[in-house]
Amino acid sequence: MSRVRMVAAEVLRSAERESIFVDEALERARSSDLSVRDRGFLTHLVYGVTRRRNTLDWLLKKISGVRKIDNRLLNPLRIALYEMHYLDGAAHAAVNEAVESCRKAGKKSTSFVNAVLRKASTADCDALLPEEDAVRHSMPEWILERWKRFYPDQYTDLLESCNRILPVTARVNRLRAKREELSLPAGTHSDSVLLEGSVGDRPE
Prior knowledge:
Blueprint: H1 3-18, H2 22-30, H3 36-51, H4 53-64, H5 71-86, H6 91-101, H7 107-122, H8 125-128, H9 133-136, H10 141-150, H11 155-162, E1 168-171, E2 192-195
Antiparallel strand pairs: 1-2
Helix pairs in contact: 1-2, 1-3, 3-5, 4-5, 5-6, 5-7, 6-7
Protein backbone atom coordinates (compact mmCIF):
# COMPACT_ATOMS: atom_id res chain seq x y z
CA MET A 1 0.00 0.00 0.00
CA SER A 2 1.35 3.44 -0.84
CA ARG A 3 2.61 5.61 2.01
CA VAL A 4 -0.26 8.10 1.65
CA ARG A 5 -2.97 5.44 1.77
CA MET A 6 -1.34 3.72 4.73
CA VAL A 7 -1.25 7.00 6.63
CA ALA A 8 -4.87 7.76 5.63
CA ALA A 9 -6.02 4.38 6.97
CA GLU A 10 -4.13 4.96 10.21
CA VAL A 11 -5.62 8.47 10.61
CA LEU A 12 -9.13 7.07 10.22
CA ARG A 13 -8.38 4.22 12.63
CA SER A 14 -6.91 6.62 15.21
CA ALA A 15 -9.94 8.91 15.06
CA GLU A 16 -12.27 5.96 15.68
CA ARG A 17 -10.10 4.24 18.31
CA GLU A 18 -9.39 7.39 20.33
CA SER A 19 -12.81 8.99 19.75
CA ILE A 20 -11.26 12.19 18.42
CA PHE A 21 -12.07 14.38 15.44
CA VAL A 22 -10.33 13.43 12.21
CA ASP A 23 -8.82 16.93 12.12
CA GLU A 24 -6.79 16.14 15.24
CA ALA A 25 -5.60 12.77 13.95
CA LEU A 26 -4.84 14.33 10.58
CA GLU A 27 -2.82 17.15 12.11
CA ARG A 28 -0.54 14.63 13.81
CA ALA A 29 -0.07 12.74 10.52
CA ARG A 30 0.73 15.88 8.54
CA SER A 31 3.95 16.22 10.50
CA SER A 32 5.20 12.93 9.01
CA ASP A 33 7.72 12.86 6.15
CA LEU A 34 5.18 13.36 3.37
CA SER A 35 5.67 15.76 0.48
CA VAL A 36 3.38 18.78 0.08
CA ARG A 37 1.56 16.96 -2.71
CA ASP A 38 1.13 13.80 -0.64
CA ARG A 39 -0.15 15.79 2.35
CA GLY A 40 -2.78 17.30 0.08
CA PHE A 41 -3.84 13.87 -1.18
CA LEU A 42 -3.87 12.56 2.40
CA THR A 43 -6.21 15.35 3.48
CA HIS A 44 -8.47 14.72 0.48
CA LEU A 45 -8.70 10.99 1.21
CA VAL A 46 -9.37 11.39 4.94
CA TYR A 47 -12.00 14.09 4.55
CA GLY A 48 -13.55 12.38 1.55
CA VAL A 49 -13.94 9.01 3.29
CA THR A 50 -15.25 10.75 6.43
CA ARG A 51 -17.72 12.80 4.41
CA ARG A 52 -19.00 9.77 2.47
CA ARG A 53 -18.65 7.17 5.21
CA ASN A 54 -22.33 6.23 5.54
CA THR A 55 -22.63 5.74 1.79
CA LEU A 56 -19.38 3.77 1.56
CA ASP A 57 -20.35 1.48 4.44
CA TRP A 58 -23.77 0.83 2.94
CA LEU A 59 -22.22 -0.06 -0.41
CA LEU A 60 -19.61 -2.33 1.17
CA LYS A 61 -22.30 -4.27 3.03
CA LYS A 62 -24.45 -4.48 -0.09
CA ILE A 63 -21.62 -5.64 -2.35
CA SER A 64 -20.04 -8.04 0.15
CA GLY A 65 -23.27 -9.48 1.55
CA VAL A 66 -21.67 -9.25 5.01
CA ARG A 67 -23.49 -7.30 7.70
CA LYS A 68 -20.45 -6.64 9.93
CA ILE A 69 -17.02 -6.31 8.31
CA ASP A 70 -13.84 -6.83 10.33
CA ASN A 71 -12.69 -3.44 11.67
CA ARG A 72 -9.13 -4.14 10.48
CA LEU A 73 -10.37 -4.23 6.89
CA LEU A 74 -12.89 -1.40 6.91
CA ASN A 75 -10.69 1.63 6.33
CA PRO A 76 -8.61 0.15 3.48
CA LEU A 77 -11.92 -0.93 1.90
CA ARG A 78 -13.45 2.52 2.40
CA ILE A 79 -10.41 4.28 0.93
CA ALA A 80 -10.30 2.02 -2.14
CA LEU A 81 -14.04 2.31 -2.77
CA TYR A 82 -13.90 6.09 -2.31
CA GLU A 83 -11.14 6.33 -4.90
CA MET A 84 -13.00 4.15 -7.38
CA HIS A 85 -16.43 5.68 -6.90
CA TYR A 86 -15.70 9.35 -6.19
CA LEU A 87 -12.22 10.02 -7.59
CA ASP A 88 -12.32 7.88 -10.73
CA GLY A 89 -9.09 6.29 -9.60
CA ALA A 90 -7.54 3.29 -11.33
CA ALA A 91 -9.51 0.33 -10.02
CA HIS A 92 -6.64 -2.17 -10.18
CA ALA A 93 -4.34 0.08 -8.17
CA ALA A 94 -6.99 0.71 -5.50
CA VAL A 95 -7.70 -3.03 -5.21
CA ASN A 96 -4.05 -4.08 -5.09
CA GLU A 97 -3.07 -1.53 -2.47
CA ALA A 98 -6.06 -2.29 -0.23
CA VAL A 99 -5.28 -6.02 -0.43
CA GLU A 100 -1.63 -5.35 0.39
CA SER A 101 -2.56 -3.33 3.47
CA CYS A 102 -4.66 -6.21 4.86
CA ARG A 103 -2.05 -8.96 4.60
CA LYS A 104 -1.38 -8.94 8.34
CA ALA A 105 -5.02 -9.87 8.93
CA GLY A 106 -4.46 -13.20 7.15
CA LYS A 107 -5.01 -14.87 3.79
CA LYS A 108 -8.77 -15.21 4.30
CA SER A 109 -9.06 -11.46 4.91
CA THR A 110 -7.02 -10.51 1.85
CA SER A 111 -9.14 -12.83 -0.30
CA PHE A 112 -12.27 -11.18 1.07
CA VAL A 113 -10.96 -7.65 0.39
CA ASN A 114 -9.88 -8.63 -3.11
CA ALA A 115 -13.27 -10.20 -3.93
CA VAL A 116 -15.30 -7.27 -2.59
CA LEU A 117 -13.28 -4.62 -4.43
CA ARG A 118 -13.13 -6.58 -7.69
CA LYS A 119 -16.90 -6.79 -7.57
CA ALA A 120 -17.17 -3.10 -6.65
CA SER A 121 -14.93 -2.11 -9.57
CA THR A 122 -17.48 -3.43 -12.08
CA ALA A 123 -20.63 -2.48 -10.17
CA ASP A 124 -22.83 0.53 -10.88
CA CYS A 125 -22.69 1.95 -7.37
CA ASP A 126 -25.19 4.71 -8.09
CA ALA A 127 -27.73 2.14 -9.24
CA LEU A 128 -27.15 0.05 -6.11
CA LEU A 129 -27.90 2.92 -3.74
CA PRO A 130 -31.43 3.18 -2.32
CA GLU A 131 -33.54 6.31 -2.66
CA GLU A 132 -33.07 7.26 1.00
CA ASP A 133 -31.32 10.65 1.24
CA ALA A 134 -29.46 9.57 4.39
CA VAL A 135 -27.64 6.85 2.43
CA ARG A 136 -27.22 8.67 -0.88
CA HIS A 137 -25.90 11.85 0.73
CA SER A 138 -24.25 10.21 3.77
CA MET A 139 -26.16 12.34 6.26
CA PRO A 140 -27.68 11.57 9.68
CA GLU A 141 -31.45 11.16 9.65
CA TRP A 142 -31.96 13.73 12.42
CA ILE A 143 -30.31 16.48 10.37
CA LEU A 144 -32.40 15.65 7.32
CA GLU A 145 -35.60 15.70 9.35
CA ARG A 146 -34.67 19.09 10.77
CA TRP A 147 -33.89 20.50 7.32
CA LYS A 148 -37.20 19.24 5.97
CA ARG A 149 -39.02 20.89 8.85
CA PHE A 150 -37.22 24.24 8.94
CA TYR A 151 -35.97 24.63 5.35
CA PRO A 152 -38.43 22.81 3.08
CA ASP A 153 -37.78 25.11 0.10
CA GLN A 154 -33.99 24.85 0.43
CA TYR A 155 -33.86 21.13 1.30
CA THR A 156 -32.65 19.92 -2.12
CA ASP A 157 -30.03 22.66 -2.37
CA LEU A 158 -28.75 21.81 1.11
CA LEU A 159 -28.40 18.16 0.15
CA GLU A 160 -26.46 19.00 -3.00
CA SER A 161 -24.17 21.48 -1.27
CA CYS A 162 -23.31 19.51 1.90
CA ASN A 163 -20.87 17.17 0.11
CA ARG A 164 -19.56 19.63 -2.46
CA ILE A 165 -15.81 20.22 -2.29
CA LEU A 166 -15.34 23.97 -2.24
CA PRO A 167 -12.33 25.78 -3.72
CA VAL A 168 -9.73 27.24 -1.40
CA THR A 169 -10.07 31.02 -1.25
CA ALA A 170 -7.57 33.54 0.10
CA ARG A 171 -7.80 37.27 0.72
CA VAL A 172 -5.00 39.34 -0.78
CA ASN A 173 -3.06 41.55 1.64
CA ARG A 174 -3.51 44.92 -0.07
CA LEU A 175 -0.51 46.35 1.79
CA ARG A 176 1.70 43.95 -0.17
CA ALA A 177 -0.05 43.34 -3.50
CA LYS A 178 -3.16 43.91 -5.56
CA ARG A 179 -5.37 41.06 -6.59
CA GLU A 180 -4.92 41.96 -10.24
CA GLU A 181 -1.17 41.44 -9.92
CA LEU A 182 -1.56 37.77 -9.05
CA SER A 183 -1.99 35.18 -11.79
CA LEU A 184 -4.92 33.59 -9.99
CA PRO A 185 -8.68 33.47 -10.68
CA ALA A 186 -10.75 36.07 -8.85
CA GLY A 187 -12.89 34.97 -5.93
CA THR A 188 -16.35 36.26 -5.01
CA HIS A 189 -14.96 39.07 -2.83
CA SER A 190 -13.19 42.01 -4.44
CA ASP A 191 -9.90 41.16 -2.68
CA SER A 192 -10.09 37.38 -2.90
CA VAL A 193 -8.49 34.83 -5.22
CA LEU A 194 -9.09 31.14 -5.82
CA LEU A 195 -6.12 28.89 -5.11
CA GLU A 196 -5.68 26.06 -7.57
CA GLY A 197 -3.68 22.92 -6.81
CA SER A 198 -1.51 22.71 -3.72
CA VAL A 199 -1.39 25.91 -1.68
CA GLY A 200 2.20 25.13 -0.70
CA ASP A 201 3.28 25.28 -4.32
CA ARG A 202 2.27 28.94 -4.66
CA PRO A 203 5.09 31.42 -3.96
CA GLU A 204 2.50 34.14 -3.27
